[in-house]
Design a protein that fits this description.
The structure holds 5 protein chains of 5 kinds. Chain B is α/β, with parallel strands linked by helices. Chain B has helices at about 20-25, 50-60, 80-95, 115-130, 135-140, and strands at about 10-15, 35-40, 60-65, 105. In chain B, helix 1 (about 20-25) links the parallel strand 1 (about 10-15) and strand 2. In chain C, the strands form 2 sheets. In chain C, strands 3-2-4-5 form a 4-stranded parallel sheet, sandwiched between helices. Chain C has a 3-stranded antiparallel sheet with strand order 1-6-7. Classes of the chains: A alpha/beta, B alpha/beta, C alpha/beta, D alpha/beta, E alpha/beta. Chains B and D meet through helix 1, strand 2, helix 2, helix 3 and helix 4 of B and strand 4, helix 12, helix 13, helix 23 and helix 24 of D.
Chain lengths: ~300, ~140, ~220, ~1000, ~250
């Protein structure tokens, strides 16, 4: 757990036992990167690393490694995401090498949403290898310095490998085993799905801790502040694998018109406070897409600032 | 809705319920339009999609199937299967640009003489409102 | 068996817009069993097309024939004498039919009346479900007879993905999540640890991705 | 049994009374080789059931159920219907009776009359229409109901003024005023009495204002109001002002269980059920929501599925059940009726209803009593035929049997069972005369027309003025001549009359016609008649097609004669188009193994086996355990007190002695194959499965019986003082001292019956409890006896037991389902029982020395056996009969019958009756050596079959199966001919004979003048 | 009654007796009031009750039918039928509330000029006494009378009356007069009431109670008669709002 893998800022923060704080930012729907830079500017200094999404919900955006490279230029450490939907194993390996060459040190291996959710449902999907096999592929490239077919790599990509985990999806009792499987496959850190059902998450973390997973891998708890009752209901019903308890929606509604956002942030901050104490949680992953300007305030009020600077 | 238009309507009636109800309507001297022509089948389950389409193709302005009440079919469930086939024919007709209301399925018991006449009048009225089948209009013009 | 759905009538009508003498060819194989291309369906399609044409006041002569199978040259041979007397021929067989016919009779125009979809079986009267994707290397024994390649939307080998909820796939409530079934079955049979070990990347070479395939029975082919 | 010269025995039977029971008995006997004389005093067969609208518990329409039977009995070659006649005297002995009949005149020749109804329209005289009770009028010349058999009008001489108008109107020349009463003598081998009952006339009670107010009606009148062929065409209206009633009250026990006004102390056993049915059907008919209330003393729903029927009425349809006897019905001036009554809660209530229905009970009519007197048949105190429980269908006179409500008040299924039982009883000693008097039609060989092209003869009928008066028949005839393949067309006044039939035959032979089309009335009633006619000259019956230009043309288009004529032409053209494609269908016959398999060695099984043997056929009796007798071994006496054990011992001995009965103890039924007439069954010995034996039989009777429920309630088994019925009977048998010494005895009813998991009433426990209470009272008159019950269901004449029990001081306490009696025996010895008394409305306690639990009756566990025979059992495990009303002993699949407790809990006399009935039903098959199979069946063309299993999945009777050769096989004798598989088969491999696709399409093509295109 | 009221009376005189008697009265200059308007018929048997009802409808205040004495009828039995018809008409008039006093049957032979005149005077006084007959007030009753009198049932019963009671019926016995009387009376009341109801029905869908009010017949009787009409196909249930059904004559 303690030998340095990629030397990225995130890795150092985690390795030094600090409570990590990562953000998320979506690449632009075009080549104009001004808005991207704006968001990165908001996040700079407030988070240890920023997830750069890869065609999230199968909606076409600028590719993740390009946006990540821009983040590196802007001095923000990116978490380069790769989904298994759009590339076969050749494209995956070549993108990992390219990203590393551009200075990207963290990456996340995700299955990716099915293309019918996105804006090109007629597209052919790939799914040549799944997220588990991708984790293992990057681990093999990094540690054995070999391609999938065993040939040597000239300059292996030392990536700090991350993966996602949804503790609330069915079958619930198998989720922690799958997490273990990802860790054995080579995941160094895990970012969970955004959490609203705290007791179910506590139960999940307890199992993870009992299985000793937290020694082998850093688990970051996902947080997404709720902007409105509408958003809460949308998440509850439409987003697959999301578990939003009704009492939470009631609390939000109780806050009254106009004050939803504020109440959402208050909830998020309470969650972050609890995660700080929760055994096995090594940090928080704040997903505030289109709310990047609020990240600073949240980080501030959650006492996450200033970010540790471990050079 | 021109009044001189005399629709040709074919009714497939099952021997045990609808055909018996038609006979009862006769012995009760009830009244329904004369352009309903009844074809007897042992059970509505015997009526096939091809029979309904063939009737429309031949020039019928309306076709309906009359079977036993659901649950009372002499052969247990012939009427339930046929209702599905009638729905299929309705879908096919609307695809072909023909009013699906020209085809219908009814359920009644053999004691419902008045109900049989009511159905016949109702279908006669409906088809008269719909006017001649599009297949016949072209012929006529 | 091969399962297919019949094309919508409007599409078939567009195919034969300016053709007045057509032949509809049924096939007694899989399409008869899944009720889209047998003798009955040939009659229904013929009657439907004639109705459509009569509605426009234009005549249409339709001949009907159903041969044993449209995937064997000898049966295709049976229609040799009259095949070219028609303006068009509609084949109601699976995708193989129109192709075998086109190969045998180059100058005739063949139209598919049916969309071939998948290999599957009847789960109940009138309902067929996909079971096999024809990937060329069968692995179902690893998953207790539940094939993730054909029945998982993402063909995951180490499922389930994050989108599985209440036993159904993220893409729709009609599609059961095969991984949910695999996990539950493994638990019931006490073979959960089969899933814990890592399944390596699959060799897709034998599937369609490896290019159009051919199978040869050495003992037969001379 | 006098066996004086068997040769002078007569192979025919007389059935007196042509209600549903009389008809069933006649059909059974006629189909088993005996000539039947069916005598009825009224102008048509059908009896009381023809007047009913719907029947419980299935709510089927009564007429739809019974009319096929009326047609069958009307057309049966070996049943001679003698209407308007009474049996004057019966001389001679069993096997050779001479019956003297008085045939009253009808004044209309029923052969000539076509029931066209012209005479009724012109007759100036009106009279009360007895069929619709007093709700409407009929004319002097009338027909009882449209489906009457014989289908002919009659003139009622007492009201007719002889004006002669009907003769003028009658085109068939069927009126013969000179008709006189005649006497005739008929020799018969046995007599079955089925005169039925009449309904009690409530005008006796002035408190119900029945004779003073039209809105107070009897149940039969209400049945006519509900009926679609009734006075109001099925619209629910009240007679006074035709308003749709919003509140109707049913008053139970009118003329039953009543000794001060009506001196009918018995219960008529059907009124509770038909009131529930009427309330549900009324709710369905009413346009606006209807509030229905039933006022009753005990709700007697003791039959199969009756308890659930009552639940459905109360919970589903919201019928109110009020346990109270209404004191008076006071008519108000606006047509409403004020009822004064006291419900259980005790306060006096008044409620205004729009209509009151009096559930009138049964009573034997005066003429029935007189007839019984003349025939020397003993009647019991209630003037019903005196019968012993152990021979339930035999009267006091040898060779004369009884069935139906003349034996005692009962419902239709019970009457039909007894009818078949009486049929078996009557023919038992005549078996050597079987087929001696029956007629069979000599038919010439069928001609083969397969090579000839179709030559069609069209016969257009005027049917008097029914067709000719509306459509232009000559024009239709001329038009028919122009149709393709038609070589002859003619029209005549009455095609169905005898003389026209003769000359049709002549013309067919002359002109070489090979397809016949008759344009007249409905094939439903007349197709068999014409098919038989053309068969008599060698034409296959299926080379025949009818065009219905009367019921479905002239009668419904009277106002547009020209259109009716055009439609008649269309219908004839369509019929001719189909006729051209008709093929002759061979009459498939299978040979029959003349033996019967009886499963179950209880009383029902034994009676069935003995019945079959006495009819002259082999019976295989298979019993799972090692002894015969079944449940009856534990029963002391029947409800009339006749000892059961000696009877059972005698049965067992007779069975063992009879060489035609092959008994297999400790044997189970293995695999069963084959169809009606040809079953092959393997029998496995219970303790050594390898020892198997294969038997062949033509029919099977399942009498697998039942067992007493061992209660786990009320500490049963934990305290010696707590017994079940069988324990008590055993104690009485070896006169256990504890019985005599006990001071307080308590019976608890409905233990395990009428609960959530067993929602049925076990029918006999009330009777057994009361009978046992009387025995205990006799043993020790000081003993205090309580019966704690929910509803006392001593149905029929068994009500006397209840009357006597109350007279002997036995106390009855009612509890309801939610707070049953509670027993606690803290120290195991002293029993304490507390129950809330329904009158004091307060709990009372007692320390009984003896507690008897009226435990439920369960069916025996036979899942595998039922699967072998592919026979269904209902959710309670009892076998499901083909039709609750008219085929109560048959299974839906042909050739299999059921009897005894396996059908439903019943008393021993009812089991015996059902067993004999099953024998009679089996005789229909086994008494012949070949059996005809319907020709309209589906057949598979192997090379078109893709073995896609669609037919296997579609057939409601799962007849088709895919054989080893790889294509579907449909067993001709199993196929019912519905055609569902034909229309679903994707490869068009199956055709339904006589209804092929081409034949149906030919009709639609013909309508639009399209030649037979492909 | 003021003397100025001049009743209008229609008189059917049979050609051979009463008409001749009337001429004789003329020849003998016997005076009688000028209120009668004479219609000559060959025999009093020719007079159909419908003529009389029609007369009342058109405005006459009374009708006199005069024929030969029983036994003198030129056509032997014509007047016997007239007696039967007038009986049935009288019964119907009473039933309809118009009252039998509007119609009178008298005999006057060819020689009886005086008796003829006396009859005319007597009838004129009775009609004068009864006052003018306004057809409008009895419109429904008159229509019903026309309907009832045109039913085959009544016309047939009237015609066959004597044949059955005096000679023999189809059973070659004399029909018991009491039975026949009962049948006839039932028929008269029934047909009249049915006719009244048909009048009510023809004006559009009505309920039983409305019919009872319009026709004055008791509710339950209306219900029973309505049933007879339904069975004869002359009335059917039109609609049923709430729980009051409406009936109408079939279209």
């Amino acid at each position: 757990m303690n030998d340095i893998k990629s030397g990225s800022n995130l890795e150092k923060v985690l390795k030094s036992g600090n409570f990590a704080f990562t953000g998320e930012c979506g690449p632009p729907k075009g080549a104009n990167v001004d808005h991207l830079k704006e968001n990165l500017a908001f996040l700079k200094g407030n988070v240890d690393a920023v997830n750069i999404t890869d065609n999230q919900t199968a909606v076409v955006r600028m590719s993740s490694w390009a946006a990540s490279a821009i983040a590196v230029q802007e001095g923000v450490e990116p978490n380069f995401q790769m989904v298994c939907r759009d590339r076969n194993r050749l494209a995956m390996m070549s993108d990992v090498l390219g990203a590393y060459a551009m200075g990207i040190r963290n990456m996340l291996c995700l299955s990716g949403d099915h293309q019918i959710f996105g804006n090109h449902p007629e597209a052919k999907n790939v799914y040549d290898i799944d997220s588990m096999q991708l984790i293992n592929l990057v681990k093999t490239m990094r540690d054995e310095e070999q391609f999938l077919n065993g040939e040597p790599i000239d300059g292996s990509p030392k990536m700090f490998i991350g993966a996602a985990s949804n503790p609330f999806a069915d079958p619930f009792e198998f989720r922690v085993y799958r997490l273990a499987k990802k860790i054995n496959a080579g995941a160094d850190f895990i970012q969970t799905q955004c959490i609203y059902n705290m007791d179910k998450f506590r139960q999940f973390m307890k199992m993870a801790v009992d299985m000793g997973l937290c020694e082998k891998c850093y688990i970051l708890a996902g947080v997404t502040p709720l902007k409105s009752v509408g958003m809460a209901q949308y998440m509850a019903k439409q987003v697959p694998g999301m578990d939003v308890p009704p009492e939470l929606i009631e609390r939000l509604r109780g806050a009254g018109k106009g004050k939803f956002a504020e109440e959402g942030i208050k909830i998020a901050i309470e969650q972050i406070e609890e995660f700080k104490q929760m055994e096995g949680v090594a940090g928080v992953h704040l997903m505030a897409i289109e709310w990047e300007h609020k990240v600073a305030e949240i980080a501030q009020r959650a006492g996450m600032l200033p970010r540790p600077d471990i050079s | 809705m021109n009044h001189d238009f005399e629709p040709q309507i074919i009714a497939f009636c099952c021997k045990y319920c609808a055909y018996a109800a038609a006979d009862l309507a006769g012995s009760m001297r009830l009244n329904y339009p004369s352009n309903i022509k009844i074809i007897q089948v042992p059970c509505t389950g015997r009526v096939d999609i091809i029979h309904l389409l063939r009737a429309i193709e031949d020039g019928a302005d309306g076709v309906y199937v009359a079977g036993c009440m659901e649950g009372d079919c002499h052969f247990v469930c012939g009427n339930i299967k046929t209702r599905k086939k009638v729905e299929y024919v309705k879908k096919t007709l609307s695809e072909l640009g023909i009013e699906p209301e020209r085809v219908e399925m009814f359920n009644l018991s053999s004691a419902m003489g008045p109900r049989f006449a009511e159905i016949a009048n109702q279908m006669g009225e409906r088809i008269r409102n719909l006017g001649p089948s599009p297949l016949n209009i072209k012929q006529a013009a | 068996m091969i399962v297919a759905d019949r094309k919508p009538l409007s599409e078939i009508l567009d195919m034969i817009t300016d053709r007045d003498k057509i032949l509809i060819m049924g096939c007694k194989g899989c399409v008869t069993v899944c009720n889209v291309g047998g003798v009955k369906e040939v009659q229904i399609l013929s009657s439907s097309l004639k109705i459509a044409r009569k509605k426009e006041g234009r005549s249409l002569t339709v001949d009907q024939i159903t041969i044993e199978r449209q995937c064997d040259p000898e049966y295709i041979e049976q229609v040799k004498a009259t095949i070219n007397d028609y303006d068009a021929v509609i084949s109601m067989a699976c995708g193989v039919g129109p192709q075998f016919l086109s190969e045998a009779y180059p100058q005739q125009k063949f139209f598919p009346a049916v969309n071939t979809k998948f290999f599957g079986g009847a789960t109940s009267h009138g309902i067929w479900e996909e079971r096999c994707a024809g990937c060329g290397t069968c692995v179902i024994h690893y998953f207790d007879g539940l094939c993730p390649v054909a029945r998982c939307s993402k063909s995951l080998m180490n499922g389930p993905c994050g989108g599985s909820s209440k036993g159904y796939c993220e893409i729709s409530k009609e599609v059961p999540c095969i991984w949910d079934m695999i996990v539950k079955k493994k638990m019931e049979q006490g073979r959960l640890d089969d899933l814990l070990c890592f399944t390596p990347a699959k060799n897709w070479r034998t599937s369609r991705d490896g290019g159009p395939r051919k199978s040869v029975r050495e003992e037969l082919a001379i | 049994m006098s066996t004086k010269g068997t040769n002078n025995k007569v192979g025919s039977v007389m059935v007196v009374g042509a209600g549903v029971a009389g008809i069933q008995a006649s059909l059974d006997m006629a189909n088993a080789g005996y000539y039947v004389h069916l005598v009825d005093s009224s102008s048509s067969v059908g009896g009381l059931m023809a007047q009913l609208d719907k029947t419980f518990p299935t709510n089927d329409c009564a007429m739809c159920v019974i009319s096929p039977f009326l047609v069958e009995v009307g057309r049966h070659l070996n049943i001679n219907i003698i209407p308007n006649s009474e049996l004057e005297s019966l001389e001679g002995e069993a096997g050779a009776f001479t019956a003297k009949l008085k045939n009253n005149p009808r004044y209309i020749d029923s052969v000539k009359c076509t029931a066209c109804g012209q005479c009724r329209q012109v007759c100036p005289v009106t009279a009360v229409n007895e069929f619709d009770c007093r709700l409407d009028l009929r004319k002097a010349t009338f027909i009882k109901f449209p489906q009457a058999v014989p289908l002919s009008y009659t003139i009622d001489k007492n009201v007719c003024i002889g004006c002669g108008m009907c003769e003028k109107a009658c085109l068939a020349g069927a009126i013969s005023y000179s008709d006189q009463a005649r006497f005739s003598e008929i020799k018969v081998g046995a007599v079955v009495l089925a005169m039925g009952n009449e309904l009690f006339d409530p005008s006796l009670f002035d408190t119900y204002a029945y004779s003073r107010h039209p809105n107070v009606v009897t149940s039969l009148e209400f049945e006519r109001i509900l009926s679609a062929s009734g006075p109001y065409k099925g619209h629910l209206m009240r007679p006074y002002d035709r308003e749709v009633p919003q509140k109707i009250a049913w008053l139970q026990c009118i003329g039953s269980r009543d000794i001060n006004h009506a001196d009918h102390s018995y219960c008529s056993s059907v009124c509770c059920m038909y009131s529930i049915k009427q309330s549900m059907i009324a709710k369905e008919h009413a346009e606006t929501p209807l509030d229905a209330a039933i006022f009753y003393m005990d709700m007697r729903t003791h039959g199969k599925e009756f308890e659930r029927y009552r639940e459905r009425a109360e919970k589903g349809s919201g019928v109110r059940f009020i346990r109270s006897r209404v004191h008076t019905v006071e008519p108000l001036d606006d047509g409403g009726l004020k009822l004064k009554y006291i419900p259980e809660s005790g306060e006096v209530l008044e409620e205004v209803f729009d209509m009151v229905v009096l559930a009138a009970g049964f009573a034997t009519s005066k003429d029935t009593k007189a007839l019984a007197q003349r025939l020397g048949i003993n009647l019991n105190a209630h003037s019903y035929a005196q019968t012993s429980d152990l021979t339930p269908v035999s009267t006091s006179r040898e060779g004369v049997f009884v069935c139906g409500t003349f034996q005692s008040p009962k419902d239709i299924p019970q009457s039909v069972m007894e009818a078949s039982a009486a049929a078996a009883g009557a023919t038992q000693n005549l078996s050597e005369q079987r087929w001696s008097l029956t007629l069979t039609k000599e038919l010439p060989a069928e001609k083969n027309f397969s090579e000839e092209e179709p030559k069609i003869g069209v016969f257009v009928c005027n049917c008097g003025i029914n067709i000719g008066g509306v459509a232009d028949v000559p024009a239709v005839r001329e038009y028919a001549k122009t149709l393709p393949n038609v070589i002859h067309a003619e029209d005549n006044l009455f095609t169905c009359s005898q003389d026209t039939q003769e000359n049709i035959k002549k013309i067919i032979l002359e002109k070489g016609i090979n397809r016949v089309v008759v344009a007249s009335c409905s094939p439903r009633t007349h197709e068999p008649l014409f098919q038989e006619t053309i068969r008599e000259i060698g034409l296959n019956p299926y080379l025949f097609e009818m065009a219905n230009i009367r019921d479905q043309n002239t009668w419904v288009h009277m106002k547009t004669p020209q259109r009716a004529t055009d439609k008649a032409k269309d219908l004839v053209r369509m019929a001719v188009a189909k006729a051209a494609l008709l093929e002759s269908l061979p009459q498939v016959t299978l040979d029959v193994t003349q033996a019967v398999l009886v499963v179950g060695g209880g009383v029902a099984g034994l009676e069935a086996a003995l019945g079959v043997a006495r009819q002259g056929f082999v019976a295989f009796l298979v019993e799972r355990s090692n002894e015969l007798g079944g449940m009856a071994l534990g029963l002391n006496a029947t409800w009339q007190g006749e000892p059961v054990l000696p009877y059972v011992m005698q049965l067992i001995e007779d069975a063992k002695k009879n060489e035609r009965i092959k008994i297999f103890l400790e044997t189970e039924v293995g695999h069963v194959t084959g169809t009606i007439g040809n079953f092959t069954t393997t029998l496995k010995s219970a303790n050594n499965p390898l020892d198997t034996k294969v038997i062949n039989h033509g029919a099977a009777i399942l009498a697998t019986g039942g067992k007493e429920y061992k209660p786990h309630e009320y500490f049963y088994g934990k305290n010696p003082k707590i017994l079940t019925h069988f324990d008590l009977d055993a104690a009485v048998r070896n006169n256990d001292k504890a019985l005599k010494d006990s001071k307080i005895a308590v019976f608890i009813q409905c233990v395990g019956s009428r609960t959530e998991e067993r929602a049925y009433c076990s029918r006999v426990c009330c009777i057994h409890s009361i009978k046992s209470a009387l025995i205990l009272k006799k043993l020790n008159p000081e003993m205090q006896i309580f019966i704690i019950y929910r509803d006392i269901r001593t149905y029929g004449l068994r009500e006397d037991l209840y009357k006597e029990a109350r007279q002997q001081g036995i106390r009855f306490i009612r509890y309801n389902k939610d707070n049953p009696p509670v027993i606690d025996s803290d120290n195991g010895q002293e029993l304490k029982l507390t129950v809330k008394d329904h009158i004091l409305q307060r709990p009372i306690e007692m320390n009984p020395d003896l507690v008897v639990l009226a435990a439920a009756i369960l069916p025996n566990e036979n899942k595998t056996l039922f699967e072998h025979f592919k026979v269904p059992a209902n959710s309670d495990g009892f076998l499901v009969e083909a039709h609750a009303k008219l085929r109560p002993v048959d299974f839906a699949s042909e050739g299999l019958f059921l009897a005894g407790i396996a059908h439903y809990p019943k008393s021993i006399d009812e089991s015996i009756a059902q067993a004999k009935a099953a024998v009679s039903r089996a005789m229909r098959i086994v008494s012949k050596n070949t059996i005809a199979v319907d020709s309209v069946i589906a057949s598979v063309n192997p090379d078109r079959c893709a073995a896609c299993l669609t037919c296997v999945r579609t057939c409601p009777y799962n007849v088709p199966r895919v054989g080893e050769e790889g294509y579907a096989i449909i067993e001709p004798s199993d196929c019912h001919g519905c055609g569902c598989c034909v229309s679903e088969c994707p490869g068009k491999a199956i055709t339904l004979k006589h209804f092929t696709d081409d034949q149906i399409n030919a009709k639609t093509d013909a309508l639009f003048y399209i030649e037979a295109s492909c | 009654m003021n003397d100025s009221y001049k009743p209008k009376i229609l008189a059917f005189l049979c050609n051979w007796c009463s008409y001749a008697g009337a001429d004789l009265a003329g020849v003998s200059r016997i005076q009688y009031p000028p209120f009668i308007r004479v219609v000559r018929v060959m025999c009093s048997g020719r007079v159909d009750p419908l003529f009389i009802v029609n007369a009342l409808k058109e405005g006459f205040d009374g009708v006199l039918v005069s024929g030969c004495h029983i036994g003198d009828c030129h056509y032997l039995e014509g007047n016997k039928y007239t007696v039967k018809r007038m009986e049935i008409l009288a019964q119907l008039l009473d039933l309809s509330g118009i009252g039998r006093k509007r119609v009178h049957l008298r005999w006057a032979s060819a020689a009886e000029a005086k008796p003829f005149a006396d009859n005319v005077i007597e009838v004129s006084n009775i009609i004068k006494e009864a006052g003018p007959f306004n057809a409008k007030d009895h419109e429904m009753a008159l229509n019903a009378l026309t309907r009832a009198l045109s039913t085959t049932r009544l016309r047939w019963l009237v015609g066959i009356d004597r044949h059955l009671t005096e000679n023999e019926n189809v059973y070659h016995e004399k029909t018991d007069p009491i039975l026949f009387e009962k049948v006839k009376n039932d028929a008269i009341t029934a047909e009249y009431q049915k006719a009244l109801i048909q009048e009510a029905l023809s004006k559009g869908p009505v309920t039983v109670r409305e019919m009872a009010d319009q026709t004055g017949i008791a509710i339950y009787t209306v219900s029973k008669r309505l049933n007879e009409l339904e069975l004869g196909g002359m009335a059917d249930l039109k609609s049923c709002e709430g729980n009051t059904p409406r009936f109408a004559s079939p279209v």
